Amino acid sequence: MIIRTFGEIARMVAGKAVHGEGSAVIRGVSKDTRTIQAGNLYVPIIGERFDGHEYAKEAYAKGAAATLWQRDRGEPPEGVPAILVDDALAALQQLASQYREQLPVRITGITGSNGKTTTKDMIAAVLAVKYNVHKTEGNLNGDIGLPLMILQMDERTELAVLEMGMRGFHEIELLTHIAKPEAAVITMIGEAHMEYLGSREGIAKAKLEILSGLKQDGVFAYLGDEPLLDRLLPHVRKPASMNVVRFGASAGNDLRPTGIEIDGDGTRFTVNGAEEPVFSIPLLGKHNVVNAMAAVAIGRYFGLTDAEIAAGLSSMKPTGMRIERLTGVSGVTVLNDAYNSSPASTLASLELLRDLTGFGRKLVVLGDMLELGEHDVRYHTEIGATLSSEHFDCVLTYGPLSKHMADAAAPFFPEGKVRWFGDKDQLATVLAGYAKPDDIVLVKGSRGMRLEEVVHRLIEQQL
């Protein structure tokens, strides 16, 4: 974590220090009084319904060494060491940028509509074979979260792997200029955030903003199966010189997987151009293997051998609720993919379920896909139309938009094998009564649908 004096931090954010000793040591940064640690700098974030300045005195009482204080919020609490700034959030971002400049750390930035967290986990596991690595935790990948992740870095960190999320234009541009990555990765362009960006082309342009902060002669690895990225790349702001690696499933990519085998709880594969080593990941699905190509590209760029990359990939610990394979107390198998959802990721999960063998029946639970904009009904209808009794035995959907999935799927199933629910508890009850110990159940939905509640009930219940 950042360790600097009160006076040094004031200079880093171009603020004015009041009520404190310039030599006092500050250790770490926090925006939350519930988790504040002794010695932290408290950052009072202002939201639509709250103002962190109201909790600055509480933060100090709990051990914070000082607080940032926005000038338009009046005087800071008497006796609380404070750094006066024009904008508390901008000061947090500037502090992170200054701290990053003071460290010799080499950073990989990752963005994409789907797969960026899993890819981050893969890349971090690969690089950790050889380096001291810091990576994004949880969903700290936005204009508040990314600065906090940088400020959590130990000064001995050699490489960092940071997610960059966004909802609109110029957000990733801000993040990449704070982080100044040496390597950049775009996993894929989907439909998430369509309501903010208008089209897949708009999403691609927003994701390509990551290149505006990429260091000269760095590396850019991206999904070569996405023609939008190829088409837009010549027209975006980027370094005058950079290395480019295209990865994907098709033959035209620099890196592509071969010999894919899904076995048990993981997937094995080789990489084009070399039969050895055989790589393995503790994840299911061809889409995860494609994302592993990004880890191969970044690993090679930072000097790891393929054997070291293979060791890192096999040891990775994926973040939960992303094709997380669970076994219920009854023996039923559940694929928990409830962290998020989009048309592309839903199709990938359905393809995985379709290809798995060795189970009694294949049951599908789908929730609404959110943030798709004005075409959300069409996307849900199209997903429903891909489902059929040829590959799946039962489909249960939850949420107002998912009714369109159920309606589109119903003609391709026997009567009663497709059901829509407006009540999540009712869905969970019906599912628990229908599932058998040798079945496999895919549960997929956007974060806001909280379908992990269905997962937990299913795996904890005796069928």
UniProtKB/TrEMBL annotation:
EC number(s) on file: 6.3.2.10
Name by which UniProt lists this protein: UDP-N-acetylmuramoyl-tripeptide--D-alanyl-D-alanine ligase
Main location: cytoplasm
Domain Mur ligase central: 110-298
Pathways involved: Cell wall biogenesis; peptidoglycan biosynthesis
Subcellular localization(s) per the UniProt record: Cytoplasm
Signal peptide residue numbers: none
Top enzyme category: ligase
Gene3D superfamilies listed in its UniProt record: Mur ligase, C-terminal domain, Mur-like, catalytic domain, MurE/MurF, N-terminal domain
Single annotated GO MF: ATP binding
Domain named Mur ligase N-terminal catalytic: residues: 26-100
Functional description taken from the UniProt entry: Involved in cell wall formation. Catalyzes the final step in the synthesis of UDP-N-acetylmuramoyl-pentapeptide, the precursor of murein.
Catalytic activity: D-alanyl-D-alanine + UDP-N-acetyl-alpha-D-muramoyl-L-alanyl-gamma-D-glutamyl-meso-2,6-diaminopimelate + ATP = UDP-N-acetyl-alpha-D-muramoyl-L-alanyl-gamma-D-glutamyl-meso-2,6-diaminopimeloyl-D-alanyl-D-alanine + ADP + phosphate + H(+)
Native organism: Paenibacillus oceani
Residue ranges constituting the Mur ligase C-terminal domain according to the UniProt record: 321-447
Family note: Belongs to the MurCDEF family. MurF subfamily.
GO biological process terms on file: cell division; cell wall organization; peptidoglycan biosynthetic process; regulation of cell shape
One term under GO cellular component: cytoplasm
InterPro entries, A to Z: Mur-like_cat_sf (IPR036565), Mur_ligase_C (IPR004101), Mur_ligase_C_dom_sf (IPR036615), Mur_ligase_cen (IPR013221), Mur_ligase_N (IPR000713), MurCDEF_CellWall_CoF430Synth (IPR051046), MurE/MurF_N (IPR035911), UDP-N-AcMur_synth (IPR005863)
Binding site for ATP: 112-118
SUPFAM superfamilies: MurD-like peptide ligases, catalytic domain, MurD-like peptide ligases, peptide-binding domain, MurE/MurF N-terminal domain
